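DATA SHEET
Item: assembly model
Revision: 1
Owner: S.N.
Input lines:
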Amino acid sequence: MNEAVENLAFYVFAALVLFSALGVVISKNIVRSATCLLGTLGGVAALYFVLHANLLAAIQLIVYAGGTLILIVFGVMLTSKSPWVQFGASRGQIAAAALVAVLMAIGLCTLMLSADWSHSSGMLAESPKVATVGKSLLTDYLVPFEAASVLLLVVMIGAAYLARPEK
Amino acid sequence: MLAVGLNHYMVLSALVFSLGIFCMVTKRNAIGILIGVELVLNSANINLVAFSRYQTGLGDGHIVAVFVILLAAAEAAIGIAIFMNFYNTLQTIDVDRGDELRG
């Protein structure tokens, strides 16, 4: 990808991610929050494309935007008598939380920008092929891969057990 | 226009992380808290992929990010199942009401 295009794409999608994340936080209505989350997840997927992580971008769109978000929207619909019911934190709590969040953002930024990242072993020239990622999943990362499949099974059984109807 | 590098992604992920923390502590709707957790996990993923691109030059960060996405999906599924039970018991999704240890 052309460097200028890459830079422009970063700024556009970073703005999308930031503003929709802001929308998630600010909106009092939980349905609106969930809709804004779609913008954040899509923007992050686009940033993965900019970062040459094609497979990950596809997974992000399928699993996050397609699966997790739908789950959240269903959760919203099933857990409120009206989707427009809203209750928020008090003004004092919001002020304290905003102070903590701003301090945390400033702290993280100064920490990461002042750190010495000069031990780079080179830049990723092109996106790793899907076949390469798949191969390393089944060789170097086989144990976490299998553990993840067991975890998913446990989650499936656990979720079905927890959400079962009352007898 | 300033050339984009690792620093830009780190600042972006720090901001998204802080917004996620803010979301988690200010929302009283349990689903809202779950949405805040998703924001935090996404910010971590941005960092993983950016370091993979600019720092190690390997695709290793991508695989860790895949596991993060997987764990986020698992966490959302279990979380929503728990919130269903919460709602069935208390008839509300307001986490401030869940302060009694009863079945």
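QC remark: The mean pLDDT of chain B is 87.
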